[in-house]
Amino acid sequence: QTYPAKVTDRYVHNGKSTSYHIVIGDWGQNHGEENISVSSSFYSRTAIGAQVNVKLKKGFFNIPWFYLAD
């Protein structure tokens, strides 16, 4: 299943290595914000307020997992 979600924040973490993160709001049955690590290219083309698509999948033992679709 695919769910729309709005980007509420984004930031870069500089430590031993640089990581890029976006924060999304409610989507599907997930209520509250979700912090997601993304590639630098995804980060650079995604602004606060943009809509992203969250893909929800069933994994091993039916444990759900998700990813952001390009």
Q: Decide which structural class fits the backbone.
A: mainly beta
Please describe the biggest sheet, giving its number of strands, its sense, and whether it closes into a barrel: 5 strands, antiparallel
Name the helix and strand elements from N-terminus to C-terminus, one letter apiece: EEEHEE
Helix content: under 10%
Tally of alpha and pi helices? 1
Explain this structure to me?
Strands 3-2-1-4-5 form a five-stranded antiparallel β-sheet. 7% of the residues lie in helices and 56% in strands. It has one helix at residues 40-44; strands at residues 2-14, 18-24, 34-38, 51-58, 64-69. A hairpin with a 5-residue loop joins strand 4 and strand 5 (64-69). It is globular, with a radius of gyration of 13 Å. The chain is mainly β and 70 residues long.
Summarize the structure.
By secondary structure, the protein is mainly β. 7% of the residues lie in helices and 56% in strands.
Keywords for this entry:
single chain; 70 residues; mainly beta; five-stranded antiparallel sheet; 1 helix; 5 strands
Describe how the helices and strands are arranged.
Layout: E1 2-14, E2 18-24, E3 34-38, H1 40-44, E4 51-58, E5 64-69
Antiparallel strand pairs: 1-2, 1-4, 2-3, 4-5
